[in-house]
């Protein structure tokens, strides 16, 4: 391979083929989280929406928790048989599992079997993703010139956020073209994004079938120096295992919580705590993602010039210092008590909605939409529970939700989300090159995949679940969920500052 001739390596063909497949895998993985609220009503019994949502997020988190096991299984395969065929297999597994989730009947049809089947498919998704990222990042890095490794691998780094972007876009496209009831029905529109996956995966498998093996691995294989036991060499040798631990606790752990707070937790917070209506909460995320995504490549490029360490740690530090102020702004600007300076134009009353409870009682929700002069509006929902026997009201509550922001506040929120995702690009853009340079070729797939997927899958993937759990446990404090990512990022920042090196390893093809 000519290191000084990008065209000779077909580097852009390599990046395109790797990136398309990896983006589709992220799309598959994240549509579950994007639809968590709807899925919770389909695969769990009615009666306790908070418990159902927590259970759904637990299943979502389970997919993250098994990612390290996928890293071990497929990382070993990647170091034994090659990068190309391993991430072809992971792509097929991910696409098949996603498609099948869209075919599982709801709780009303098959009972407890519904969430069990979804959990099993979600675990298969997690295993597949555990093998995908390490293969794609390694494959691109082993084609890239040493002096531009950060820049070229940063294109792979955009795929996770682009997968999230595509997932949001597809869900919005489906939802905005049908009624709320049609979208949320047992066999409604929420299933379409899952079914679409099989087409995307088919296209990507075809593209990847025409790729050649990584030149460094091919050279290693032809010389007979392929590792006979990648797991043993990665984790039983003290020097290499030390690097695995340093990668996890000094970089990837913090990167993981920054990634999921800036994107997943932010979207969940805007919808559940700030109470924004569906379209605005999703489009705010889309704008933030669209404007921030080019910075993955910028920070990857910059890391080739000044090193990876301080860019990643700066992203963590910014998150630690600004998360609470930014999320406080979300709460303050969506508090309808602060909207009283604007006159009410009109009040629209919707038809009451009734649900029969398991005990025979009936809950009735009467919703009024309050329209303000500045273009914003919000719902006031009066909910009453009526005893079935004598129709007497036994409990009455009042809640607010589904708020629509005025234009100025809407763009302010989009700007704040952009900042959150900018931190993501700082920690995530350089990290593929950083991990590749830490480990030798013959055990690279295995060695880099495990810390990456523990940091992202366990520490990062648990951010939405732990955040909701904390806010449920301490209901008076909507910001309490932020202490988990702030704490993890702070620990990682300290370890990384002390122990990481900023030196770029120019030779990875040992």
UniProtKB/TrEMBL annotation:
Keywords: Cell membrane, Membrane, Transmembrane, Transmembrane helix, Transport. The chain crosses the membrane at residues 12-32, 52-74, 86-104, 110-130, 151-174, 194-211, 244-264, 284-303, 310-327, 413-436, 457-476, 482-501. Residues 14-505 form the Major facilitator superfamily (MFS) profile domain. Pfam families: Sugar_tr (PF00083). Its main location: membrane. Gene3D superfamilies: MFS general substrate transporter like domains. It is a multi-pass membrane protein. The keyword Thylakoid does not apply. InterPro entries: MFS_dom, MFS_sugar_transport-like, MFS_trans_sf, Sugar_transporter_CS. The keyword Transport applies. It is found in: Cell membrane. This is MFS transporter.
